[in-house]
What we know:
The chain is 43% helix and 15% strand.
Amino acid sequence: MKRDFLTLWDVTEDEIWALLERARALKKGFQEGADIRPLRGKILGLLFLKPSTRTRVSFEAGMYRLGGQCIFMTSKETQLARKEPLSDTARTLSRYIDALVVRTYGHQEVEELAKYASIPIINGLTDMYHPCQVLSDLLTIWEKKGSFDFPIAWVGDGNNMAHSWIVAAARMGLHLKVATPEGYEPHVSVLNRAKLEGKGRIELSHNPVEAVRGAEVINTDVWASMGQETEQEERRKAFAEFQVNADLLSYAPDSVIVMHCLPAHRGEEITHEVLEKFAEVIFHQAENRMWAQMALLEWLLVGNLPAVT
Length: 309
């Protein structure tokens, strides 16, 4: 039976841990020169309706490292540009490739593709969720901190990244402190499901100082995501007090690390100085997109997942 990866609700806590363990094992193996190619003969499709650097290259590089091949497509290069239904696209591509990564706007589009495809559909980003990024973020925190036994702060927009962190917290029992400006809170449907089905401690506020107090990790993202360019100036004003800067960090423990999913707008959601101070963590986080997704691809395509230790 095929599995999809549209949100972190699609995997159990044990499966998340197994993916993190496998990602670390793959990283170690490749760094030591091991020949690990379980995806020989497999083809991954990438259907992107939004621009990308990290998502595209990390999936392509990871697939090639595991012995597979990739086919990259945009909507303009397919019959989607001529209004072919997603249901027909899903059933057609299922005959050619072994899995499909989709990067698009509406989350309902990946759900429609998953409904009709007979191959795994992977959410490479929608306006509602970005689960691959948060999977790699979890890997980064685990490697840098060794556990998740501390508060994690989200400062900024209640966007797709905030939503995915809320699901991760609910799934894994994390303590997540979310601070957004008024009117930019996470979607109520995400919060309600996390409350009903999750076991995490999720705190919401409009105070970034309270969010970072005691937090060992501070996460942020751009204030205006793709498709919100016309709101740029309005958002810049609304988010002015939510910049991750030296003053905000003064309220956090000295051991705190700052993370950013990139690309960053230096001088807006994060200052140049703070980003450079934590550059090793942030680009380590970017690298981990590849390793976490390699574990995900191996699992979805050939079923390999280690037992949780």
